[in-house]
Write a structure and sequence with these properties.
It is a single chain. Strand 1 and strand 2 form a beta hairpin. The protein starts with 28 loop residues before the first strand and ends in a 6-residue tail after the last helix. It has 2 domains: 241 residues, 3-Layer(aba) Sandwich (Rossmann fold); 77 residues, no CATH class. It is elongated. Strands 1, 2, 3, 4, 5, 6, 7, 8 and 9 form a 9-stranded mixed β-sheet that branches. By secondary structure, the protein is an alpha/beta fold. Helix 1 packs across helix 10 and helix 7 crosses helix 9.
Length: 342
C-alpha cells in the first residue's frame, strides 16, 4: 500500500515563479518563452491576485543560462538582462529624466547573500554630480543614487524603514532592488536571473522574510532583480534521488540492466527517460513509490529532528556571485545611462 504523508505543514522555499509553473495554461497566467542565443527567457504575467502560484499580480521574467565564466556567455546574459530591464522601465512609464535609487540587499560578509552589495558597488552613481549641478540634465547620464542597507541583525533597522527614509530625503522616482533568492531546483542555482515589478521580501532567500519592498509600501515603482544562490538541503537530497533514477533509466537502455555506466560516458540528454513505477519500486522499495512532494516531505521529516535541515550553496559560489554581480551592475548601468561603455 502506498505510504501516505501529510504535506500541509511543509513547503519548499522558492522565490522563482518558474519553479511553481505546473502548466503553461494556468488560469489567469500567461507564459511566453524566448531563446536569445545561449539564453532561455520565460516571461510570466500573473493577471489576478488570487492565482494558483500564490504570487502577486504582475510580471516575472526569468533568464536561464549555464555558464557565465566564459566572456561570450556572460555578455549574452547581460544583453538579455538589459533588453528585459528596459522593457520593465517602459511598462512602468519611467522616462530618462526620472531619478533612480538602486538598493543592494544582503550581507556582504556572507557570500551567498552578498549579490546585492557586490552589484551596487559597481553601479555608476551620479546623484551628487546632479546635486552640484556639474551634470547637464540633457546629458547621457541619468540621476542615479545607490545604497546598501545591510541586514537587520547588524543595523537593528528594517531595510524598508531605512529605504523609506532615503525616499523622503532624495525623492527618487523609482527603485531597483537587488537580492539573493532561493530556488527549489538545483539546475537554477546561480544560473537564473529573475526580474519582477511586484517588489521583494528582504531575506526571503534564507527564510528570514522582512517587510515588503514594493510600490504599495514605498509609493514608487519597485523593480526587483534576484539570483537564486541557495537551495534547501531537502531539495538537494530529493533531486539527487530523482537523478539516480534517471541514471538507472539511462544505463538500463544503453548498458544492460545490471551494469552501471561509467559517469564520464553518460549523455545527460537521455535523462529525460523515465523508469516505470514497478522499476522504481524494485530499485528503492516503498521510497520509489512516492511522488516528488511526498519524497521531499519524507526527507524533511528525517533531516529536521537531527538538525540537518539546512540551506546550501555550490562550492564555487564566491566566484560566480562576484561574476553575476558584475553582469547585473553592467546591465543596470547600460539601462539607466545612454551609451554606457563597460
Amino acid at each position: 500500500m502506498k505510504h501516505e504523508i501529510d504535506l500541509k505543514k511543509y513547503a519548499i522555499r522558492t522565490d522563482l515563479v518558474v519553479d511553481l509553473l505546473a502548466s503553461k495554461e494556468m488560469e489567469g497566467i500567461t507564459v511566453q518563452e524566448e531563446q536569445i542565443k545561449g539564453v532561455h527567457v520565460t516571461d510570466v504575467r500573473v493577471k489576478e491576485e488570487n492565482n494558483g502560484l500564490g504570487k502577486k499580480k504582475g510580471r516575472y521574467v526569468t533568464i536561464d543560462f549555464q555558464d557565465v565564466t566564459d566572456k561570450k556567455n556572460a555578455m549574452e546574459v547581460e544583453d538579455a538582462f538589459v533588453k528585459y530591464l528596459k522593457e520593465f522601465l517602459e511598462e512602468e512609464k519611467i522616462s530618462f529624466d526620472q531619478k533612480a535609487l538602486v538598493i543592494g540587499l544582503g550581507n556582504d560578509d556572507s557570500t551567498p547573500d552578498s549579490l546585492g552589495p557586490k552589484a551596487v558597488k559597481q553601479v555608476l552613481v551620479t546623484k551628487y554630480l546632479f546635486d552640484m549641478e556639474e551634470v547637464n540634465p540633457s546629458s547621457d547620464y541619468r540621476n542615479v543614487a545607490s545604497f546598501i542597507p545591510g541586514v537587520m541583525a547588524m543595523t537593528g533597522y528594517e531595510s524598508s524603514d531605512i529605504i523609506s527614509s532615503l525616499i523622503s530625503i532624495g525623492k527618487p522616482d523609482f527603485i531597483l532592488v537587488i537580492d539573493a533568492l532561493a530556488s527549489s531546483a538545483i539546475s537554477r542555482v546561480n544560473k537564473t536571473i529573475q526580474i519582477s515589478n511586484t517588489g521583494i521580501l528582504p531575506g526571503s532567500g534564507i527564510g528570514n522574510k522582512r517587510k515588503e519592498l514594493s510600490k504599495e509600501t514605498l509609493g514608487i515603482p519597485v523593480i526587483s532583480i534576484g539570483v537564486p544562490t541557495v537551495i534547501d538541503a531537502i531539495v538537494l537530497v530529493s533531486d539527487t534521488i530523482q537523478y539516480l533514477l534517471k541514471h538507472f533509466s539511462y544505463h538500463k537502455d544503453f548498458f544492460g540492466k545490471n551494469k552501471l555506466a561509467p559517469v564520464t560516458s553518460i549523455d545527460t540528454s537521455n535523462y529525460e527517460k523515465e523508469l516505470s513505477e514497478e522499476e522504481k519500486e524494485t530499485l528503492l522499495g516503498e521510497v520509489g513509490q512516492l511522488s516528488e512532494e511526498e519524497l521531499q516531505e519524507l526527507i524533511f521529516e528525517v533531516l529536521t529532528p537531527i538538525g540537518y535541515h539546512m540551506v546550501v550553496t555550490p562550492k564555487e559560489v564566491d566566484f560566480v556571485v562576484s561574476k553575476l554581480g558584475t553582469i547585473i551592475a553592467n546591465g543596470i548601468n547600460r539601462t539607466l545611462h545612454k551609451n554606457f561603455d563597460n
